[in-house]
Write a structure and sequence with these properties.
By secondary structure, the chain is an alpha/beta fold. It is 39% helix and 14% strand. It contains 12 helices and 13 strands. The structure holds pyridoxal-5'-phosphate (PLP). The site of pyridoxal-5'-phosphate (PLP) has 13 residues, from helix 4.
Length: 389
Amino acid sequence: MNINSNYDNLAQSYLFSTIAKKVNEYTTNNPDKKVIRLGIGDVTLPLCKAVTDALHKAVDEMGVQSTFRGYGPEQGYDFLREAVRGYYKSHNVDLELDEIFISDGAKSDLGNILDLFAKDNTVLVPDPVYPVYVDTNTMAGREVKFIDANGENEFLPLPDKSIKADIIYICSPNNPTGAVYNKEQLKAWVDYALENKAVILFDSAYECFISDANLPRSIYEIEGAKDCAIEFCSLSKTAGFTGTRCGYTVVPNNLGKLNKMWVRRQTTKFNGVPYIVQRGAEAVFTEEGQKEIAVNIAYYKENAKLISDTLKECNIWHVGGKHSPYIWLRCPNDMKSWEFFDYLLENAQVVGTPGAGFGKNGEGYFRLTSFGSKENTMEAMERFKKLFK
Ligand code: PLP
């Protein structure tokens, strides 16, 4: 047999293992120091009560002959697809039920969707970037071009008409930068995609952090997007489902054969998300569920605001933190990303993520997240003030 040699072309990512190693070394040598981790990309608050009640109920149903369920529909149960449709409707987006696919999270479908595209497509990815977009294409042997996100464009690059792209990745609110596109900017991308007969793969995993009604939560709020975009969303950050696993993908019927191809792909390679999990996910969209998750999202957003306000006080340039759990800052005193990591660990015992780990344009930048506890975030910011104010 021959192995897929494209795997040899994957950049080895030592980002999180290097961070863990450095932090371990530091805590071993300085056992009396309290290290605060603001690099965390996972949620920390538990599932809300509406969700756990629904999960318990579904577990009980599975233990009774008359309500037991075996294989479910590969595209997801209608009760959850209807709930997702209602959620979109509340943001003025009308979807057909057969355009909504329940997934076990955005990451899987972002990778799986590439089954639908030929190898000879040019892929356009912003730099810095969530590494999954690049790695999944590299595994398939596809060429990836980068578009620069940087301080000049406030990490919101717009289309460069001189580049001909076929598959375009956009993530808004963005990981790692926290930057959010407005409607006009997203319209520029939609127009560009339509002109190029390209497809946009729109990652809206962080849409729930948007609190300005004028900012788009879904690309389908933009005219023409149903003719060129597939959207990936997730309950991971919205409702603490990082370990429970549920999301949804929208493949519009307007996209030629793609919707039917995706049905074919899913029915062949996927057997659906567990019934129990889908009942838990359904509860997220109830009135009670929405109220309860809003409390958790507000908690993270308060942390983000505290970080952003502190950076302002310290005159540290940054984006994000307003409609996003991520804050992307320029390292003070022209430090490089890893230099700043070491400096911060040594002098403030605060851990973040070096921007250089997300692409070449991330060099000189640093990512903090708001997923820690309020107490730790406050203490970390006091330490920032002591160092930089
Ligand atoms: N997309 C982005 C931009 C992310 O940051 C993440 C997770 O961190 C995901 C997708 C994956 O989400 P899920 O947990 O639904 O697979």
